[in-house]
Amino acid sequence: MTLQEQSIRLQDAIWDGSVPLDIRLSPQECRTYDNSDSYLIQYPRLSYLPFLLPRLHAFFKPFLIDPDVRPYEGWFSYEDVPLKWHYPLGLLYDLFSGASPAQVHGSGEDDHHPPSQQPSTLPWRLTLHFADWPGEQLVQPDAEGKVLHDAFINSVKEADFLRNGTAKGIMSLSKDDSTQLWGAVQQHDRSVFDPIFQKLLYAQGAPLRHVPLKVYLPSSPSASEPSTGHLRVVQSLITPSLQGTKEPQTLGTALHTLLPTLFPSRKTPILARPVLHGAVVPLNSQLEGLLKEVAYLDGWLHIGLVMIG
């Protein structure tokens, strides 16, 4: 199999990736307490939970104590932790579900069953709420969807700026392209998304300046963040090559720079494993290649960490 064929298969797998969800209405908001039907759906890993709210509101309306609540007032929790609606579903699942990530073939570690084969964590059971918005943890969307749209576009702009040193790429998209890009995200339409996103990824043929990388680290609760899922998000300016050399930056060298106590080795995971799209990523993976092949729809590499032992 050629490298191009491998790349196509990898991107196909990422776009086809999904998580089965079992969504239940909060008992405190249900006329029959805990006896409402479940909403079952196989939902794309790359997509966002708020896109489900209109159909969930319609489905649960007969069970709602207050049927006049509006769809955009809905929010999700897992084991009483409010889920950040601007995170892609796949990232949320990797961070909170407790599922063991799949191992990439040839990583040199014992294989685990991929998340899709773990009955203990699937379907992923989420709770839907329409009352008591957790304002200290989540920004509330609006009826027109502008807040969600702006959150996504701002993330795309930030990634664009890091890659190219300017956000001119996203800012110079035509109105039609901008509208179609957001529509493709909402509809999970790769055929529309890819051609537009390629214009951003390879803007004006400019060399890559920095890799948009965020690392999500489980952490203990603090006085300022007592119950937000206890995540610390780590990011910094990461160049595609090691400083002062032409040697490619790998995920291992980047994590060693960002979190040297967790990643004392640049080649072997000792205390934690990096997870992307439900799979452990080998530390020798080159960051520039990962960015071009497996970035999320906002142009970022969102890396979750799973502690070893």
Average predicted confidence as pLDDT: 89
What distance lies between the first and last C-alpha atoms, to the nearest angstrom? 36 Å
Q: How many beta-strand elements?
A: 11
Oligomer type: single chain
Helix-strand category: alpha/beta
Largest sheet entry: 6 strands, mixed
What's the short story on this structure?
By secondary structure, the protein is of the alpha/beta class. The protein is 30% helix and 17% strand. It has helices at 3-16, 53-60, 89-96, 146-164, 168-171, 175-187, 190-201, 251-258, 287-294, and strands at residues 18-25, 39-44, 75-78, 81-82, 102-103, 124-129, 213-218, 231-234, 272-276, 279-280, 301-307.
